[in-house]
From TrEMBL:
Coiled-coil region: none
GO cellular component: cytoplasm
Source domain of life: Eukaryota
Name the UniProt record assigns to this protein: Polysaccharide biosynthesis domain-containing protein
Domain Polysaccharide biosynthesis residue range list: 12-136
A Pfam cross-reference name: PBDC1
């Protein structure tokens, strides 16, 4: 299929958006169900992380701004970084969604379009540097509180039924 002949096919755009949304949901479920410090997002996590921090030592991944990815100078720096993974990471330049704030779930106001290698670099760094663990712990604590409330509610119902 010749990509130049496709134009702006709305069905392709919708299909991509659905796939990106599904991947974002899967990623969020993963990082809130398993301690992210134990996760490996690719076979090349260490290489990606090392190259990322070498290329972007001061990038604040805890408070990412769209300009960190999209400004003219950022685009040039990211382009150089991304090229290093051509042939190393499958679909390294495939479009995906990236959270700006690692403590908030995927939402329109907290999401930016990025390439797969940008997503991997930022999320691997967040996992290794403990930022995603904060979200994991918060969600885990909320789930435990909800379980306690549900157990208390069930016990209350049982008492009222037997009384």
């Amino acid at each position: 299929m010749d990509p130049n002949s496709l134009g702006n096919d709305r069905t392709i755009e919708v299909s991509w958006a659905m796939k990106a949304s599904d991947e974002a949901e899967m990623h969020y479920n993963l990082i809130t169900s398993v301690d992210p410090s134990q996760l490996q997002l690719s076979k090349e996590d260490q290489l990606i992380y090392t190259q990322f921090r070498k290329s972007f030592p001061e990038l604040d991944i805890g408070n990412l701004q769209e300009a960190d990815l999209k400004s003219p100078s950022a685009k040039e720096n990211w382009r150089k970084f991304c090229r290093k993974f051509d042939g190393v990471i499958d679909d390294f330049n495939y479009g995906t969604l990236l959270r700006l704030d690692p403590l908030i779930e995927y939402a329109e106001s907290n999401t930016v379009f990025a390439t797969r290698i940008q997503f991997l670099a930022v999320e691997i760094a967040r996992n290794k540097e403990g930022l995603t663990t904060k979200l994991y712990q918060a969600v885990k604590n909320k789930r435990l509180q909800n379980e306690d409330i549900n157990q208390l509610s069930d016990a209350t119902k049982e008492i009222s039924v037997t009384s």
